[in-house]
């Protein structure tokens, strides 16, 4: 390590020691404030009790109950400013932590006063800023890498098409496999970009009236599947809702043993239920809890069998961004039921 690195390290250690000493001073200050309030209350109660007993021994009649009320009132008035100041700022800090945990990375809390609660609020703001910068950097890297992957994929597809046409290789098994692999790569890139966008809560959805029954009918017709749907319109982003339906249907076709159907009904006056049912091998209870995780592969699944990739993870993200839920359950008689519950408004 060079002299510049050593000097930077010493400065960091010195800054940390100064911050630690400052925090210790603030903690002691608050401790003495609370301690003095408690001691003052005890001393006040003791003095009043001693005075009452002394006066009663001299024959004076002093009512105990009103005196206790006055004492409690004085103690309460003395402790109220400290308790109010602490609880008010701690409530702000609690709301800030909950907002950050809910994904609102721009959340910051006001730093008021010069005690340890203010130091804690300042530390929270610094941590939130570092977390936000880290996640923004991660998302930007992911988005940039995904965008950069599109160009070589397009060039590979064009080169393969030219080569296959020149050598009359369009129908060979190797060329078909290469076309399929590149299509899967292109789809994976699009899903990564979409997942990155859905993770960014700062980007709002474009809410419009969407004919969900029409979307379901179109996607089922594309795959030649059975569909039972009530005429239902909800508020949401049509492109994302179409992707939700398509991913559920594609997953069911891939794992559903050729018996797939979809249903769309009103679950309550305020909610709709979209179900995709199949008669596949079914999903274990453990896998049902984790199936919406990105790239989850159950135990016993090899590379050739694959996993669920990002498809079902995107379904959950899209449902969540539309204030809905998604669940996976075993179907009576064998198979699986995927249900998405969305609010109508």
Structural class call reads alpha+beta
CATH superfamily of the largest domain: Histidine kinase-like ATPase, C-terminal domain
Shape: elongated
- Tell me the fraction of residues in β-strands, as a range: 5-15%
Give the class-level CATH name of the largest domain.
Alpha Beta
- Head-to-tail CA distance between termini: 61 Å
Strand order of the largest sheet: 2-4-5-7-6
Q: How much helical structure, as a percent, in the residues?
A: 55-70%
The tally of domains stands at 2
Cα-atom radius of gyration: 32 Å
Name the poorly predicted regions.
Answer: 1-5
Features:
345 residues; alpha+beta; Heat Shock Protein 90; 2 domains; two-stranded antiparallel sheet; 8 helices; elongated
Structure description:
By secondary structure, the chain is of the alpha+beta class. The protein has two domains: 3-133, no CATH class; 209-343, Histidine kinase-like ATPase, C-terminal domain (Heat Shock Protein 90), CATH 3.30.565.10. It is 63% helix and 12% strand. The protein has eight helices and seven strands, in the order ααααβαββαββααββ. The strands form two sheets. The protein has a five-stranded mixed β-sheet with strand order 2-4-5-7-6. A two-stranded antiparallel sheet has the order 1-3. A hairpin with a 5-residue loop joins strand 6 (325-330) and strand 7 (336-343). The longest helix is centred in the first third of the chain and has 55 residues, at 3-57. The radius of gyration is 32 Å and the shape is elongated. The relative contact order is 0.06.
């Amino acid at each position: 390590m060079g002299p510049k690195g050593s000097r930077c390290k010493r400065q960091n250690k010195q800054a940390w020691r100064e911050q630690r000493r400052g925090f210790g001073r603030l903690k002691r200050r608050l401790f003495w404030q609370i301690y003095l309030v408690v001691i003052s209350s005890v001393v006040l109660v003791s003095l009043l009790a001693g005075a009452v007993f002394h006066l009663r021994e001299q024959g004076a009649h002093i009512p105990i109950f009103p005196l206790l009320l006055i004492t409690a009132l004085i103690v309460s008035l003395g402790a109220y400013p400290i308790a109010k100041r602490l609880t008010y700022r701690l409530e702000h800090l609690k709301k800030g932590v909950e907002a950050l945990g809910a994904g609102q990375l721009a959340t910051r809390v006001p730093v008021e006063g010069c005690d340890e609660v203010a130091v804690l609020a300042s530390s929270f703001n610094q941590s939130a800023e570092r977390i936000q910068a880290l996640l923004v950097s991660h998302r930007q890297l992911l988005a940039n890498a995904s965008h950069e992957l599109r160009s070589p994929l397009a060039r590979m597809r064009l080169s393969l098409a030219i080569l296959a046409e020149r050598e009359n290789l369009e129908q060979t098994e190797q060329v078909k496999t290469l076309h399929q692999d590149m299509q899967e790569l292109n789809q994976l890139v699009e899903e990564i970009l979409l997942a990155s966008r859905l993770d960014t809560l700062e980007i709002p959805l474009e809410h419009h009236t969407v004919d969900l029954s029409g979307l379901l009918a179109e996607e089922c017709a594309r795959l030649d599947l059975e569909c039972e749907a009530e005429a239902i319109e909800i508020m949401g982003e049509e492109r994302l809702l179409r992707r939700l339906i398509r991913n559920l249907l594609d997953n069911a076709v891939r794992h559903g043993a050729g018996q797939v159907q979809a249903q769309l009904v009103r679950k309550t006056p305020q909610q709709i239920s979209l179900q995709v049912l199949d008669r596949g091998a079914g999903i274990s209870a453990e896998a049902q809890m984790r199936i919406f995780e990105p790239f989850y592969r159950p135990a016993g699944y090899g590379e050739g069998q694959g996993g669920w990739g990002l498809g079902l993870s995107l379904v959950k993200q899209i449902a969540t961004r539309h204030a809905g839920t998604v669940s996976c359950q075993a179907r009576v008689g064998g198979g699986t039921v995927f249900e998405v519950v969305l609010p109508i408004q």
